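Notebook entry, structure prediction.
Reason for the run: the old model in the group folder had no record of what sequence produced it. Starting over properly, with the input documented here first.
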Amino acid sequence: MKLLLTSSGISNASIEHALVDLLGKPVAESHALFIPTAIYPFPDGPAGAFQAITGTAKSPLSDLGWKSVGVLELTALPSIDKEVWAKKVQESDALLAWGGDPVYLAYWMKHSGLADLLPSLRPETVYVGVSAGSMAMASLFGEA
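New structure, fully documented this time:
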């Protein structure tokens, strides 16, 4: 798995080019799963998740012209058969982890089973982190 860890998403052409390089193909030919989980602890979390998913947030991520974008809500995963959601994760070209509360996101990455699945993803899969989505991937943060 490849990592593109940012503080504010795909905020300029240089970062967008890095994303395309990591994907190895255009965004328009790539399938992504959007992870909004980290935003929910904030007072306006549901609205923030909606803005990020629909592409109306300040920083673009889900609206970069992906071939397809699905939503992977980590808090729901423990109630779904792992075979159902894990297959979608394994088939995706990119995982897009939105910002918010990094401790909350790290908790749900672990308790949903996603953290255990990440090491087995295809080498060409790209994890794109925004703010908390980036911090939750740091090994020291996850252990602290």
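Summary: Helices lie at 13-23, 45-54, 82-91, 102-112, 114-117, 132-135, 139-143.
The old model has been moved to the deprecated folder.
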